[in-house]
Amino acid sequence: MKNQESICSLKGIGDKTAKLFEKLGIHTIEELIHDYPRAYQAYDPPVSIGELEESQIQAVAGILQKDASVRRFQRIQVITVSLKDQTGSVQLTWYNMPFLRNTLQSGTYHIFYGKVTRKNNRLTMEQPEIYTRETYAQVAESMQPVYGQTKGLSNKTISKAVAQALDLRDMERDYLPAELRRKYELAEYNFAIEHIHFPANRQELLFARKRLVFDEFFLFLTGVRKLKEKREDMHSHWVMKLAPEVKKLKDHLPYHLTDAQEKVLNEVEWDLGSGLVMNRLIQGDVGSGKTIIAVLALLHAAYNGFQGALMVPTEVLAKQHYESMLELFEAHGIDKVPVLVTGSMTAREKRLAYEKIRNHEADIIVGTHALIQEKVQYDKLALVITDEQHRFGVGQREMLGNKGEEPHVLVMSATPIPRTLAIILYGDLDISVIDQLPSNRLPIKNCVVDTGYREKAYAFIRKQVEQGRQAYVICPMVEASEMIEAENVLDYSARLKEALPGICVEYLHGKMKGKEKNQIMERFAAGEIQVLVSTTVIEVGVNVPNATVMMIENAERFGLAQLHQLRGRVGRGKYQSYCIMVNCGDQDGTQKRLDILNRSNDGFYIASEDLKLRGPGDIFGVRQSGDLEFKIADIFTDANLLKTVSEEVNRLLDEDPELEMEEHRDLKEKMDRYLSQSYEKLNL
C-alpha cells in the first residue's frame, strides 16, 4: 500500500529532510496526509502603500523605478529596492539572494507579499514573496495551508510534499454509512482529506473540516461505547471496609475539607465498598484539592491489606507527591510505606523498589508511566489512580490495570469541561465534580493587556523576584516560524535575559530531552531559576507554591480552557498571585473572550461561557481543548457536532452492536483498524 510507504519515496525528500519530518512525528505518506494545517494564509488583493498596516501580512504591487541595489555587510548580501505610489513608499529587503537583481529591474511590475514592519521610521517588508500578475492570480483569494514546522523545514517544503502525497495516495473507500452522509450533508472522505489541505475558499474548508471532525468524534465515541460495555457492572475482587485510621487522619488535617471534597470522598468510599469495580472520574479545578482525596483512597486500600498506585505525567510531580506523602504520614504516625518509581532512577534504586512492590513491603506506589513496565510486579493491586488523566491513554491505564485483577480505577482531571460534554466524552466513567476551592486560597489577580505593557510587566516580575518570588512566561511556539507570527521560547528568553539582568532566566519546551526537562523543572521547583520561559509543556508537571506571576504572551492564540490551566500553575502558595495575559491580536471578539478569564477564576464557569461564545465554524484560532488530543476536532468549538455524533453512535450501536449488517461492513473494518492503532492513545 502506497500510504504506508516512507516519505522518502516522494521527490525531493532525502534522508536529511526525512529526519526533519520525523521530528514532527511524520514517517509515512499516510502520516503526512493526516498532518493537517494549523492555520491558513489568505492571499487578498494588493493594497496601496498607504493602506499597509504594521505587523500585518499583506500584498502590495507596483512598477519599480530603479534597479535593485546589492550591498555586502560582512558575510551577508543585502538586496534592497524601494516601491512608491501616490500614497507613500515602502522598502523591500532580501538577504543572501543576489540572483534577485536580475528579476528586480527598473520598469518591471511585481506583486510583493509579506509582513509589514517599521524600521528607522520607514515601512519595510523583509523577505517578501515575489509574484507576477499571472502567478499571483493563481493563489489570489485562495486559502494556503500553514503547517506546524521545525527548524530547517519550511512551510513551502511541507506543502509541496503534501501535494505530492495526495497525488500518489491510495484512495480509501468511504466507510460512513451513506444515510449518515446524506442526513448531515457530509463531504466524501477522500474529498475532505484533499480539501482540508488545499481548500479553494472558506466554504470548502468548512465543508471538508466538518466531515473530518465528524469522523474523529464518531470513531472515538464508538471506542468509548465499546469500552463501557466491556466494563459495565463488573464484580470486584477488592471490597474495602472504611478504615478508622483514614478517618482519624482526615479529622486531624491542618485544614477542613470543603463540602465538595467531602461529597466526592463519600462517592469514592462507597464505590470501594460496593462490590463492583470503580471507574470514576474526578473533575476538579486547579487547586481544588483532588490530591488529598487520592491519598485518602490509597490509604483505604493499604489499611485493607491491598496495594494502590498513583500514576502522574512527570517525574518531578511524582517526586513531589511522594515527598509530601512521606511528610504527611510521618506527621500523623501513619505506618504505611510509599515507594517511588521513575524512569531516571538508577538500576539499583529500581531493583530495590521492584522488590518492595513484589513482596508487598510497599503499600502505595507513586510514579510515572514507569509503573506499567513489565518488571514491575504487584502483590495485591486493588486501586489505580491516574492524575491529569488526559496525559495517559486508555492503553496505558489498562496496562496498569492488568497488573492486578481488575483493580478499582480513579482518574483525575483539572480540565474543566461542562458536564454535558464530560458525560459524552467520558462515557465509560462515573463523574464526580469538586466545584469549590479551599477557603484559604487567595484568588489570582488577572489583567489583559496589549504589547505596550511589556516593559511594565518586566518591572513587575523584577519586583516579585526581589521579594523572593518566581515567575512563568508562556510563549505559544518553540522557535520562530516563517509563516506564523507569534512569540517563541528561544528568542524570547534571550530578550528577557537582557531585560532582566542579574535574574536567572531559563527556558523549557517539549522538544527538549526528558532528562533536560526534568533538570530545568527541578531547578525551578528548588528556586534556583527565578523566571521560566516555557511553552504549554508546563501546563501539567510541577507544583511551585513560590511562583506568583504567570505572564502569557499571545494569549489570543490559546483556548480559554488551556489559559485557565496555565494560570493554575500560580496561586498555589500563601502569596498573592497574578496572571498577565498579553493580547497581541486585533481580531474582533478576542478581547471579549479574554475578559471572561479576567472576570472569573472558576474553570467550569469559563468553560461554559466559552462554549456560548464560540459558534459552529469558528475555527480560525486555536484549539480550546489541549486535554483530548484530537487531530482536528475541538470539544468546545465543535460541541454541537459532538452531541449529534454521540446520538448517532448510540443509535447505530443499539441497532447493530457488532456492526454485522452489510451497510456497516466498511465501518466495522475501519473501526477494528482504529481500535488496534489508537487504543493506547484513546483518551478515555
Descriptive account of the structure:
The protein is an alpha/beta fold and 684 residues long. Among the domains are: 44-140, Nucleic acid-binding proteins (OB fold (Dihydrolipoamide Acetyltransferase, E2P)); 244-434, 3-Layer(aba) Sandwich (Rossmann fold); 445-600, 3-Layer(aba) Sandwich (Rossmann fold), CATH 3.40.50. Helix content is 38%, strand content 18%. The protein is built from 23 helices and 22 strands. Strands 2, 3, 4, 5, 6, 7 and 8 form a seven-stranded mixed beta sheet that branches. A seven-stranded parallel beta sheet has the order 12-13-11-14-15-10-16, with helices on both faces. The longest helix is centred in the first third of the chain and has 30 residues, at 202-231. The two termini are 31 Å apart. The model is unreliable at 615-627 and 680-684 (pLDDT under 50).
Topology summary:
Blueprint: H1 15-23, H2 29-33, E1 39-42, E2 57-63, E3 69-73, E4 76-85, E5 88-95, H3 100-103, E6 109-119, E7 122-126, E8 129-131, H4 133-139, E9 143-146, H5 155-168, H6 178-183, H7 189-197, H8 202-231, H9 244-251, H10 259-273, E10 279-284, H11 290-303, E11 307-311, H12 315-331, E12 338-341, H13 347-358, E13 364-367, E14 381-386, H14 394-401, E15 408-413, H15 419-425, E16 430-434, E17 445-449, H16 454-466, E18 470-474, H17 489-499, E19 505-508, H18 514-525, E20 531-534, E21 547-552, H19 560-567, E22 578-582, H20 590-599, H21 603-613, H22 639-655, H23 665-678
Parallel strand pairs: 5-7, 10-15, 10-16, 11-13, 11-14, 12-13, 14-15, 17-22, 18-20, 18-21, 19-20, 21-22
Antiparallel strand pairs: 1-9, 2-6, 3-4, 4-5, 6-7, 6-8
Helix pairs in contact: 7-8, 8-22, 10-11, 19-21
